[in-house]
Design goal:
Helix content is 84%, strand content 0%. It is built from six helices and no strands. The mean pLDDT is 93.
């Protein structure tokens, strides 16, 4: 997954667990694409301080993901949902009941993902 996209997903799932200051600076870098120098000037801290804070935030967010796997489960659920869409389209074209059984299996996998 592209680095910025992953950072965005991690932030969507775990960003509320960062401090307000961390969230503000992280958003400036990831979502608003401000440079470290711009943020440093705005915040009255050094460019290195901004760099270190972003690095620390990335580690914090990744550690939450290592423990909770919410992004991983989200990605798996999306993949399975796409497969269900494909199978339902195929079923509407050929009425193969085997496809319905596969859809039932996939929906069970999704339920299991959410249970853990």
């Amino acid at each position: 997954m592209e680095k910025i996209a992953r950072q965005g997903l991690l932030y969507d799932f775990y960003g509320a667990l960062l401090t307000e200051h961390q969230r503000h600076i992280y958003e400036d870098v990831v979502f608003y694409d401000l440079s470290l120098s711009e943020i440093a000037e705005e915040q009255g801290i050094s460019r290195q301080g901004v760099h270190d804070l972003i690095k620390r935030c990335n580690k914090i967010l990744e550690s939450y993901e290592e423990k909770l796997h919410l992004v991983e489960k989200f990605e798996q659920t999306k993949k399975l949902a796409r497969e269900i869409q494909s199978l339902t389209k195929a079923f509407s074209e050929n009425r193969d009941m085997g496809l319905i059984h596969r859809i039932e299996e996939i929906s069970g996998e999704i339920v299991e993902l959410e249970a853990h």
